Amino acid sequence: MKSVRLRWSERHCQDHVQHADEGGKEGKRGDGLTLAGPLASLRPLKLSELTGERIAEWLKSQTAERPTMAALSYRLLRAFIRWASDTPAYLGVIPADAYKSRSVKDAVPRVGAKEGDCLQREQLVVWFAAVRKIQNPVISTYLQALLLTGARREEMAALRWDDVDFKWRSLSIADKVEESGRVIPLPPYLASLLLELKRINDTPPNVRLLARMEARGEKWEPSQWVFARKTAADGKIAEPRIAHTKALGVAGLPHVSLHGLRRSFGTLAEWCEVPVGSVAQIQGHKPSAIAEKHYRRRPLDLLRQWHTRIEAWMLERAGVDFEPQQAQQGLRAVNQ
């Protein structure tokens, strides 16, 4: 499994564990117990019993109540079967038609984008006003970063300070599509928000707290994570959805998921007449056309021109008073 973890992203591995979980554990939110994942019902089966007919029946049983999770579970199961066929110890054990048969393909739910899961330009004013009022600066900045970069939620959550280049104004994102990751521009307003987070992160606690830590044999040091959370097991932000849902309620807006913020970036960028390929490269989408795949890889300074335009347009529509010079002054202070 170590070789698989090297090839699969952290999020993909987590999805396998979550969707195969048998449930019955205490939930992180609320008083109830967790539900079994869609793949849990397949765990008692032998590998040789994973026939196309059995998988088709499983898909039909899961699609009725949770079609989106069923579709993802199918893709996870397909990845597992492909891994098994490439592993000598399991080669030929799973029937060849396990996921390729017509009955299985017909049973896979067709799930499209959530209708309306996207901010409209006239909603930017109230969204920014509510999110900027969130008392936790880490969550407030994280949510704004999702909208201003179009990054995937797990990509942004995994951002380290080593990935932030204030001098050349760039962010190194651990891309789930490109193995080497991708480098995107760091636009001025977002840079100013990250500078404030860095100031907070690099400020040691007061003398009393330091003394308590020393008494416990602990040593204070700044977090490696941009969006840090002290109480989290891995030290980084874990569940910002609650704060975002509250902010949406305050703003009087319909529900928008965290992935909806990523979708909003791509949609709102069209108002700025930014080339579709530039938006896709910033977001980390796979190139669609042959020319995009083989020839057009835009340099960072060209992407920065378009990205800065998108950010400025959003801030203007949101009524956020910001001058790029504010970020430049802070950047010079950090770079010195």
From TrEMBL:
InterPro entries associated with the record: CB (IPR044068), DNA_brk_join_enz (IPR011010), Integrase-like_cat_sf (IPR013762), Integrase_catalytic (IPR002104), Phage_Integrase (IPR050808)
Tyr recombinase domain boundaries: 114-308
Keywords assigned: DNA integration, DNA recombination, DNA-binding
Entry keyword DNA-binding: yes
GO biological process, one term: DNA integration
Gene3D superfamilies linked: Intergrase catalytic core
Stored Pfam families: Phage_integrase (PF00589)
Single GO term (MF): DNA binding
Domain of life: Bacteria
Keyword DNA-binding assigned: yes
Residue intervals of the Core-binding (CB) domain: 1-85
Residues annotated as transmembrane: none
Family of the protein in this entry: Belongs to the 'phage' integrase family.
Name this protein carries in UniProt: Phage integrase family protein
Protein's organism: Trinickia caryophylli
